[in-house]
Design a protein that fits this description.
By secondary structure, this protein is α+β, with helices and mostly antiparallel strands. It has three domains: 210 residues, BirA Bifunctional Protein, domain 2 (2-Layer Sandwich), CATH 3.30.930; 100 residues, Anticodon-binding domain (Rossmann fold, 3-Layer(aba) Sandwich); 70 residues, Translation Initiation Factor IF3 (2-Layer Sandwich), CATH 3.30.110.30. The protein is built from 14 helices and 25 strands. The strands form seven sheets. A seven-stranded mixed β-sheet has the order 3-9-10-16-13-12-11, with helices on both faces. Strands 18-17-19-20-21 form a five-stranded mixed β-sheet, sandwiched between helices. Strands 22-23-25-24 form a four-stranded mixed β-sheet. Helix 2 crosses helix 6. The longest helix has 29 residues. It is globular. The protein starts with 11 loop residues before the first helix and ends with a strand. The structure holds one RNA strand.
Amino acid sequence: MASVITPRDKDFSQWYVDVVKHGGLAEHSAVKGCMVIKPHGYAIWEAIRDYLDRRFKETGHVNAYFPLFIPQSFLAKEAEHVEGFAKECAVVTHYRLKLDADGQLVVDPAAKLEEPLIVRPTSETIIWNTYRNWIHSYRDLPLLINQWANVVRWEMRTRLFLRTAEFLWQEGHTAHASEAEAREEALRMLDIYRELAREVLAVPVLSGRKSDQEKFAGAVDTYTIEGLMQDGKALQMGTSHFLGQNFARAFDVKFLNAEGRQEYVWATSWGVSTRLVGALIMTHGDDRGLVLPPRIAPLQVVVVPIYRKDAQLQQVREAMAPFMEAWRARGVSVRFDDDDNHSPGWKFHEYELKGVPVRVVVGPRDLANRTAEVARRDTGEKELVSWDALGDRVPALLDDIQQSLLRRAEAERDRRTYEVDTWNEFVRRIEDGGFVIAPWDGTAETELAIKEKTKATIRLIPDEQPDDPGRCILTGQPARYRVVFARAY
RNA sequence: CGGGGCGUAGCGCAGCCCGGUCAGCGCACCUGCUUUGGGAGCAGGGGGUCGCAGGUUCGAAUCCUGCCGCCCCGACCA
């Protein structure tokens, strides 16, 4: 039977949609631009959440929750912030419905709110309005708070996980007594994001600072991690912002320092979203479906029994039970799939679509030979393993898959990362897809002109810069930096 | 907001040009039997206001008008 997945080289966008749908990750909902996250997709998000929540707490942060609704006037208080978000806000204007003369349900005009409420696109304003009451002295600082929440940005065009009107994320909002401490915090959290991407998701990223054009609305500096997807487009996977005193000024949040002087508080905010699930798909997926790194896979090992009679099923179950118990004791998640409604072949395809890293197949032949067929999802390779070795082989294979996915993704990223110094080469490389490192004169005009001509944006400005960055690829002026360009999601 | 496509059973579609056993197919679902090492087979069965509202007609899924919704591609964005 033909695959239900469109091949990547035929239509990458369709391939992506097929993997999301047939992998049981998410589906379109009755609400335009909003998705239903299905159990398998949500389980991946939960694994991301669990890892980050642990890391946040290890670094001194606590969770809290702030309202979904933000008074319209709050958004207006920080000029750049409102400019950045005003165009994509859902607005609540009424609080009641009623039946009209025809029995139709309509908004009750008498129930108009005094002040419209914005469904949060991000929570800086409501949080800093709250922090004003929480922070009085340097002894109240630092304030290290994270929130797990949903936010709404009314995007014109949406894509499952990558850009939905409503999405799940975490947003950290911290307050500090000094600029240095706040900057340090912003970079610390970026490091945690980079570790999540590399060590857990097996997605290698580049990190650095955003240009003024690309930074968060209201930030002094935005730091980012960027991944490179299989189609050569970049994906922003997480951002951490040094907000300076912008929000403290807008919401009048001051503290008394040790010298007894009033000072505005220094701030950061940082977040990652369900978009990371999209990054996983587009980094590791293949034409058979999703490929999950073991460290993020909700199910790491599936055991599929082959049997004719119930007695055989029972024999397989009993033979595998000690292995499953031993694997679980080592922290491996494993399922014995004895569902009789589907044939083994059907199950093989299903678990490949869902990205389960390791499949163990045991049938009558194996019972006779004391063996199992072990298949790895990343390469598709199968090996016959004797029961003597099976207990150690499966956990070892999971480690190997985790490492090998990262190496493969790194090799792919390196292969598609170019250093260029001429306009013609720049255009050619951007056209092919990939990270293109090139000298830039540092002006917004040049950045916009390059975007206009090539659809490429500055993904980030690397921390480490050469003594002489060369001459700007567009203007030929002495360059200020060598920066990473790419077409991006 | 521009460009393209699509609304017929839970999903995927055919039928529409040329109005009249066109309410159909595949998958899924239910029952039974046989199967199970790469999406099993046979037999029987249940399920649809044909997106919505008007109109033309003896008769509309099919023709006309208006509306609504969704998806994909672009501009904007985590």
